[in-house]
């Protein structure tokens, strides 16, 4: 009996004395401003369309807490800044007190697990239908050009947009400001301004869409003015240490293209310096659609090098190329969308090199509060 015990103790001592295996690059700690991250596997913002009446629901408490880990960064799904910001059914908002109250238990649940939680604040612009707009009005944009192909989803057609008058722009900037304030009131650690995906901010930034003749159109500086005014307002409201932005200069979502995406990306990151933004989250050029990945020769490296804050990359990452991105210093953090959606314990699976659950596209954006949402299994 005694020798059995001795053997156990010896094994324990040997184990403790053995050199610990180095964690993979994705699982090394990182300090992002005042936030101490224990690993670099970020939950990318993912619209799930389960927020009935634009209000976060109790099932989101479970969904986000499942994906939270101690010291892990989560970015919440795109969240509308006003009643004109929606283009899809059942997406959450953060412009009313009721919505702020509804976010609180979701945020609390993430914090209870030690997670760091940012809210992605969003306006769809022309990616909408008048049925989602107050009084059935036309969606607002930089332009009156209609998205010519596809639909917002669930077969709803796009409605021709109305270009914002110059004097209306400060009101939209203010909507972002109030949304940021509300996010902090709801308990979020900060916000990510949605400047990607073909939505309102990009509709101003990109020259294939923006056809304005006022100070918000024409030159690169003019086209970026609106996005940077939003950045300035949000930073002024909640402090630069709580603000990031997501950009996809290379993307062509909803026909939102630019003739010189690298120049656009570089201009933006350099301008962001001025505000001391916490992070810049960029979508890789290869990510073209929600379903498939395409490789291409363009790279985010020039932007990574030009930005002095935390650089997050996203789009088509798996375990190995995510590790490479960190090891080669191409990014500080890697955001995972579809893999994290289907694997609530993704960082742990990466640590153990465990097999991953497959995602099911059919259930990405359905209203069901459980199916394809909170029922993806954890590792045993
Ligand atoms: C179902 C779904 C919803 C998404 N919703 C958002 C969103 O709300 N905001 C956003 O910026 N990107 C959104 N994206 C893009 C993802 O954040 C991510 O950039 C994309 O899925 C590529 O990363 P991945 O290859 O790791 O999935 C969404 C993607 C999917 C598949």
UniProtKB/TrEMBL annotation:
It comes from the Eukaryota. Its cofactor is FMN. Keywords: Flavoprotein, FMN, NADP, Oxidoreductase. CDD domains: OYE_like_FMN. InterPro entries: Aldolase_TIM, OxRdtase_FMN_N, Oye-like. Pfam families: Oxidored_FMN. GO terms for molecular function: 12-oxophytodienoate reductase activity. Residues 26-356 form the NADH:flavin oxidoreductase/NADH oxidase N-terminal domain. PANTHER family: NADH OXIDOREDUCTASE-RELATED, NADPH DEHYDROGENASE 2-RELATED. Belongs to the NADH:flavin oxidoreductase/NADH oxidase family. This is NADH:flavin oxidoreductase/NADH oxidase N-terminal domain-containing protein.
């Amino acid at each position: 009996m005694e020798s059995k015990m001795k053997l156990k103790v010896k094994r324990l001592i040997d184990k403790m004395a053995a050199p610990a295996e180095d964690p993979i690059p994705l699982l090394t700690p990182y300090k992002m401003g005042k936030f101490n991250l224990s690993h670099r596997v970020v939950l990318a913002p993912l619209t799930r369309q389960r927020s009935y009446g634009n209000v976060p629901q109790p099932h989101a408490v479970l969904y986000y807490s499942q994906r939270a880990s101690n010291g892990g960064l989560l970015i919440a799904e795109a969240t509308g800044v006003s009643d004109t910001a929606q283009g899809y059914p059942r997406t959450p908002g953060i412009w009313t007190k009721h919505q702020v109250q509804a976010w609180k238990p979701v945020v609390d649940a993430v914090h209870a697990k030690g997670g760091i939680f940012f809210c992605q604040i969003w306006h769809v612009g022309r990616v909408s239908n008048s049925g989602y707009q107050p009084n059935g009005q036309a969606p607002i944009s930089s332009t009156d050009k209609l998205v010519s192909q596809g639909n917002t989803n669930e077969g709803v057609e796009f409605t021709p947009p109305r270009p914002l008058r110059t004097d209306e722009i400060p009101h939209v900037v203010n909507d972002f400001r109030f949304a940021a304030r509300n996010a902090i009131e709801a308990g979020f650690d900060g916000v990510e301004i949605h400047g990607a995906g073909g939505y309102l901010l990009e509709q101003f930034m990109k020259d294939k869409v923006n056809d304005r003749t006022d100070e918000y159109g024409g030159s690169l500086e003019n086209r970026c003015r609106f996005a940077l005014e939003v950045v300035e307002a949000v930073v002024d409201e909640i402090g630069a240490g709580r603000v990031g932005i997501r950009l996809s200069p290379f993307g062509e979502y909803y026909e939102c293209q630019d003739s010189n995406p690298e120049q656009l990306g570089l201009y933006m990151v350099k301008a962001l310096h001025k505000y001391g933004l916490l992070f810049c989250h960029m979508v890789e050029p290869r990510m073209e659609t929600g379903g498939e990945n395409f490789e291409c020769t363009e790279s985010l490296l020039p932007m990574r090098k030009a930005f002095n804050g935390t650089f997050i990359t996203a789009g088509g990452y798996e375990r190995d190329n995510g590790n490479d991105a960190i090891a080669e210093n191409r990014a500080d953090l890697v955001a995972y969308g579809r893999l994290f959606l289907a694997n609530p314990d993704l960082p742990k699976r990466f640590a153990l090199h465990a097999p991953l659950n497959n995602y099911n596209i059919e259930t990405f954006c359905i209203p069901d509060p459980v199916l394809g949402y909170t029922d993806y299994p954890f590792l045993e």
